[in-house]
Amino acid sequence: CACRPSLRDDSINSEARGAAAPFAHLSPRERSSCGYSTRYTPCRDIPTILQARPQCEKHQDEVPPEAVGPASKEWQLYGTIWVFLGGLIAGLVLSRLVYDCSIQTAAASRGIRGGSTADQATNLAASEQSVVLPGGSSQPEAPSEPFSLQCGIGIDASTLVTTCSKPCPMTESEAAIALSKQQARSDQLENEAPNKPPETRGAGEYDPNCRAAMVLTWAINRPEVTDVLEIGASFGGGSTAVFGRALKAKGKGEVWSMEAVPVKFKQARQYNLNEGLPSKLLLASAVAPEEMPTHEERLAAGDTRPADWLKGEVSVATLHGMGSMPHLCATHHFGLIFVDGGAFTGPAEWKAINKYCSAVPWVALDDTHAKTIDILVELQNDPNPQWEVVYEELSTRDKELYDGVGWLSKAGYVFKGGQPDLGAVPPVGKVGTTWWRQSGSFGPEVTTYIQQHANQQDFRNFALLRNLRCTH
């Protein structure tokens, strides 16, 4: 109190208030301030408090040290409260900044621009709660219907929003934040990778006139297919170019092609740029490193490919640290997904499709003898399949690595109804063996298109699947 000019001498008359309680008339804060001032503050030479100083000094010994000053419980409580309030305010400010950023990113992915963050959030919520129909009108989406016209066969897919059926396990804002982190990592990997001239077409990539290429072209011409998500661009001159040329001829749509190897990514992007194709190359991994199988798991599934091969693919996935496929499906609509990633990533990619991309109407599988063999076997053994194999073909180009007929035969696959009839015991390792089969309402249409447009009857290990959960 001696250092507070507002506490004058006449307000501290201890004799009038009783010597036993010299500070009883003061508030706790005033009493602690008085004790703090007289004990620790050099008060002399301060004219404004000379009058009050003697009275405070008279009673300074009556105030126990632990009851006053910064060490008192009262001051510690004040400090704790201020620290808590400061942290709370800082947390609220940071949360708001993150929220604004995520809303703006998600809104931009939907084409919602301008206005305040609140306006963008309102428009984004409205777009997530309605289904836009071909005529341009919209109707509320019934929460009880997980599969709606969002994946309908035969509708104009340019009006659709994402490939993740509602309720989607991941929000668009969450996906947008994850993709921004992935992009930062991709930029770093790209800067570190050497530049090499693009290659026309790598070994094993699609010939533009082969049967499987024609099946993909048929699918591109479907009205529900606009943008395509391809897993595995390689050098960009195979299936990526097939998609790009078909979309260019169609006049709308892009192929979003993921490539996990930085050097291949740069070569593929340059090739597609030189060809003027509507492609969007992404340096990313479809699956996270922890989703990769172990060598023991592959051996148990009958896969005898070398362990070093798997180890190399795990190291590539580790470069990226995350799988981007779920985030892409949660923020964008794709009419077709082409599964042609790593040699051991097929099962994880299939799991991601069914969880995050379940509104995609079409899925194509490459290397069904090895990469995606588990998917075909699973569908065959599923008593209530949600996918229909519309068209499939196999080829035995050598006795081991590319023996499609042999690998699927060992896995217990049933070849009934295909061409040619391979019998009860299909040939294993017989080079030159080819086989194909159509099914469902779209099978005849696909095979007719192949006969009319495929200049080369080269067979691959390939399949086209239709999503039975979509309306049609």
What do you see in this structure?
- There is one protein chain.
- Helix content is 41%, strand content 10%.
- The strands form two sheets. An eight-stranded mixed β-sheet has the order 5-4-3-6-7-10-8-9, with helices on both faces.
- The protein is of the alpha/beta class and 472 residues long.
- The N and C termini lie far apart (85 Å).
List the helices and strands and how they pair.
Elements: H1 14-17, H2 28-40, H3 53-59, H4 73-109, H5 117-128, E1 130-132, E2 138-140, H6 172-192, H7 211-220, E3 228-231, H8 239-250, E4 255-259, H9 262-275, E5 279-283, H10 295-300, H11 307-320, H12 325-331, E6 336-339, H13 346-356, E7 362-366, H14 373-381, E8 387-395, H15 404-410, E9 434-438, H16 443-453, E10 462-467
Parallel strand pairs: 3-4, 3-6, 4-5, 6-7
Antiparallel strand pairs: 1-2, 7-10, 8-9, 8-10
